[in-house]
Amino acid sequence: MVRDEQTSFQTTRHKxxxxxxxxxxTHEHWVVLQGGKGSGKSTLAQGILAAWPHRVITMCPVNSKxxxxxxxxxxxxxxxxxxxxxxxxQDSLWPELMRASEATQGSLxxxxxxxxxxxTKSILATVKAxxxxxxxxxxxxxxxxxxxxxxxxxRHHPVWFDIAAASPKDVRxxxxxxxxxxxxxxxxxxxxxxxxxxxxxxxxxxxxxRTGRFFRDRYKECDAPHGFIPQSLQNEALRRLPLPRIxxxxxxxxxxxxxxxxxxxxxxxxxxxxxxxxPAALLPSSTADKEAPSLVSEKMSSNESFALLxxxxxxxxxxxxxxxxxxxxxxxxxxxxKESLASLMAQSLPWIATLNVDNASIPVVIIGEGEGTLAxxxxxxxxILNKAWFSKVWTGSYTLMWKPSPDGNAxxxxxxxxxxxxxxDTMLSRVLNVEAxxxxxxxxxxxxKIRQFQTQNKxxxxxxxxxxxxxxxWQVLGESPKLVHEGGKV
Length: 490
What we know:
Blueprint: H1 5-8, H2 12-25, E1 30-34, H3 41-51, E2 56-63, E3 69-76, E4 87-89, H4 93-100, E5 110-113, H5 123-133, E6 138-143, H6 147-154, E7 159-162, H7 168-179, H8 191-201, H9 205-214, H10 231-238, H11 247-250, H12 252-262, H13 270-273, H14 279-282, H15 288-297, H16 302-313, E8 333-338, H17 341-347, E9 351-357, E10 360-370, E11 373-378, E12 381-386, H18 387-393, E13 394-402, H19 418-432, H20 444-456, H21 467-476, E14 484-485
Parallel strand pairs: 1-6, 1-7, 2-5, 5-6, 10-14
Antiparallel strand pairs: 2-3, 3-4, 8-13, 9-10, 9-13, 10-11, 11-12
Helix pairs in contact: 2-3, 7-9, 19-20
């Protein structure tokens, strides 16, 4: 049996699961393989495909018309009558497959249905039809099923395999394998490096494999134990991964800002005063002469201001990587230019403002607004700036980041992709506490959901999912920071 690179190596845990899965498939009518994104479901399924002695047909669901699901055959191990590329309507899948595969060789064909969770409410009907029409075949169902899907499926007593979250040992083995490194010759990956990969990949072993491929061919011989990979190469490899999230720290600056205004001019208690000046000390005088020396002495570099903006979004980014063009790694878009203060505040997103004080260019991160004041972060401190003074020294330039749709678009319309429309329907339904349609098709009901959301969030209720409405949806979902207004109200 020959396997390609993708299935030739699995972690120790995956090898054990593969053997158990292969043995179980020979005795059980249908088996479920449950796991998160990048957990190794497809790798295990491909291993089964290569090892199964009879015909294997692998399918995946595709929503071709926005409302009707089809199953497309992506692999077929039998040459005569090969079905690769054929699509079948979901409601007639198994009868059509029976007719199309009458010449199946072997007595125990295996059907692999990948990403079965995408069939949402109809997955159980598909399984029931298989059980009734294919009593001598086998079904391997893979996916990342919701709790309700799991409950419905488990009522029909499948053998259930759960792939646990990736461990540092898994990440080390995957990284070494794709780097072509034999760990028996020495471990060149420090524990801290492996933990950083695990944190940035969030358990997605495909991203760990990407890191490994960066080191390919660097350790070809095993004559001597491998030494640790230099820090510079570790940093270069980590740049190929998404930026790490620091959710616990993401809202710290915003909480502090709320506390500043909530204190109403009263001094902080002793624990807080150790790391933040009192509100009275932060308020600027009527002239720029007394304000300027403080900001100038605490001046940040451009990289530091970007790193600070990333941290407000919840990402831990080193100064060397903190640039506008790195926002794509976090699924964001970085914008810069000149805009009015009112327009920027209306978007309710934190942004970098460049101030010109005593002929010095000083970047600050705006994180909130009060009556006649702005809250800003600079060099690890929070400043309350008088708006009138700010308007005099602000150059008018800004830099901000915002999160587009899952497909990377600034708006979602009737012409958007099925995935974007389905995501919008699901998220709006969650926020409004109503049932989702799950069709991937734009409908009058979806337009009405947009209007309701806009009304709740004091946006013009035109039923158009534009940039401002999209920004506000991400904020309500907790996936985007928002400016704190005086009193902590948004």
